[in-house]
Design a protein that fits this description.
506 residues, alpha/beta, nine-stranded mixed β-sheet, six-stranded mixed β-sheet, 20 strands, 35% helix, binds ligand BES, binds zinc ion
């Protein structure tokens, strides 16, 4: 889809549909682009408002046919709620819903008003960014395994134009639209990886996809093979891989946009390409969802693509240990003791708590590489789904100031996070009779004890742990989310990297 900025009156746009904002609790007072449109339609929209058919609630959509009175055959009225309460998130969600609706009715070329900017809530750059980000996210489809001549195959929006009355903002709008597109395309790349069935995305496939992406954007990509992992002493990660016929791959992507000896931000993602639970096998119902147990890896890999496209003046390294977790004659057994790269030993009580076992070695390796600060992202615990549901990603840290900056980046992206405590008392649940620790801490506070486990391998480096077990997928289309993988928290990670680069990159 092309996105461009046009100068002129939206009412005159030659397109299959015009998209314009309406606000709540405002009767008869059309503003911005809507004034000329309603005039051409003989006041039809004004009447729909008076009769209460159009209320302007957030994401309310009303499609009006123009019957030859405008050069565009239809106008989509997009509710944005109360004028003074419009946010970038409201515009992103509305643009996503609107773009999906217009695609569904067969529009190929659409023309948007600068949603939220005509009401003065957002500047033109922020509006263009939110429209582009929302539309690209909202139009995402995962259809590569479907017949190419299916019902909707020819339903696609080829061009989205944003119409500005005032040409002086064109440059700012173009910058905004480009930034929005880069962020959304990165999230969509993560969605592509997470939606991919596990037979089409083995650790080897994931490594190849990461390598191709890195090459496309001029980044260094190294894949550590099993032998190299052995040499490094990654006994904890390798204990997860040993049950699978698929070889593990430890993916390393390096972006060097900052000073040679400057700090390097480390992004670490859990890359279990399928989690059966291993010998502690999961129940059959819903197990197919575990193809997305590499969503953390997908997020950090995809974030690197956006970081490179934005040409950040900072150094960032992504680490994504990738393996299957399978039961077999060679699989790890409950009670086995394994040794992580930093020498600490782990009693594997439950082989289904495998994410923390691969992250343990990844965190050690991050420290060996001197990365700081560290952010890890993982579909780590079912307990987090129970605690926070599918709306909010769990966040834990050893550095509250660092976490606040992640929260700020999340607020800009419209992705939600909530902190859980890291009191040392929780460590007691991980005590083992035979090793330095157990890999599970029992039923209570499962999300926190998983984080306390990881803390053993962080070695005091400033660190944030994000548990996205509940937020990796959506059960339906909702605003920027499309049923399936969400691409969370790619946009938060990129926003964080942008802010961090501004402070620490040079
Ligand atoms: N990948 C799962 C966590 C998960 C559960 C992600 C549901 C998404 C949805 C993880 O490897 C796991 O199985 N964790 C166990 C840990 C337990 C054995 C301590 C869990 O949460 O049940
Ligand atoms: Zn598991
Ligand atoms: Zn898992």
């Amino acid at each position: 889809m092309d996105i461009d900025i046009q100068r002129g009156e939206l009412a005159d746009a030659k397109a299959d549909a015009l998209a314009v904002a309406v606000f709540q609790e405002e009767h008869g007072k059309h503003s911005g682009s809507l004034k000329a449109i309603d005039k051409a339609l003989g006041g039809a929209i004004g009447r729909m408002r008076e009769e209460g058919e159009v209320r302007g609630k957030p994401s309310e959509l009303t499609l009006v046919h123009t019957l030859g009175k405008l050069s565009a055959p239809r106008v989509l009225l997009i509710g944005l709620g109360k004028r003074e309460k419009v946010t970038a998130q409201i515009v992103r969600d509305a643009a996503a819903e609107a773009a999906r609706r217009l695609r569904a009715v067969g529009a190929h070329r659409v023309a948007f008003a600068p949603l939220g900017a005509e009401s003065g809530s957002l500047d033109v750059e922020a509006s263009a960014r939110a429209i582009a980000e929302g539309a690209v996210l909202g139009l995402y489809r995962f259809d590569r395994h479907k017949a190419k001549n299916g019902d909707d195959a020819d339903r696609r929006i080829d061009r989205l134009s944003i119409y500005l009355k005032d040409g002086k903002d064109k440059g700012a709008a173009e910058r905004g639209a480009q930034a929005g597109r880069i962020l959304a395309e990165a999230a969509n790349f993560a969605r592509d990886l997470a939606n991919e069935p596990a037979n089409h995305l083995t650790p080897t496939d994931l490594a190849e996809r990461a390598r191709a992406m890195a090459k496309e954007h001029g980044m260094e990509c190294r894949i550590l093979e099993r032998e190299e992992m052995q040499r490094l002493g990654m006994g904890s990660a390798l204990s997860v891989a040993q049950g699978s016929v698929q070889p593990p791959k430890f993916i390393v992507i390096e972006y060097r946009g900052g000073k040679k000896n400057g700090p390097t931000l480390g992004l670490i993602g859990k890359g279990i390409t399928f989690d059966t639970g291993g010998i502690s096998i999961k129940p059959a119902a819903g197990m197919e969802e575990m193809k997305a147990d590499m969503s953390g890896a997908a997020a950090v890999i995809a974030a690197m693509g956006a970081i490179a496209r934005l040409k950040l003046k900072a150094n960032v390294t992504a680490l994504a240990p990738a393996t299957e977790n399978m039961p077999s004659g060679s699989a790890t057994k409950p009670g086995d003791v394994v040794r992580a790269m930093n020498g600490k030993t782990i009693e594997v009580i439950n082989t289904d708590a495998e994410g923390r076992l691969i992250l343990a070695d990844a965190l050690c390796y991050a420290n060996q590489l001197g990365l700081s600060p560290l952010i890890d992202v993982a579909t780590l615990t079912g307990a987090c789904v129970v605690a926070l549901g599918s709306i909010t990603t769990g966040a834990m840290t050893n550095d509250d100031a660092l976490l606040r900056r992640v929260f700020d980046a999340g607020a800009v992206a419209g992705e939600k996070f909530w902190q859980l405590p890291m009191f040392d008392e929780y460590k007691e649940q991980l005590k083992s009779d035979v090793a330095d620790m157990k890999n599970v801490g029992g039923r209570e506070a499962g999300t926190i004890t998983a984080a306390k486990f990881l803390e053993n391998f962080v070695d005091g480096t400033p660190w944030v742990h994000l548990d996205m077990a509940g937020t990796d997928g959506s059960t339906r289309d909702r605003g920027v989310l499309v049923k399936g993988a969400t691409g969370t928290p790619v946009r938060t990670l990129v926003n964080f990297a942008v802010d961090w680069a501004a402070e620490n990159g040079r």
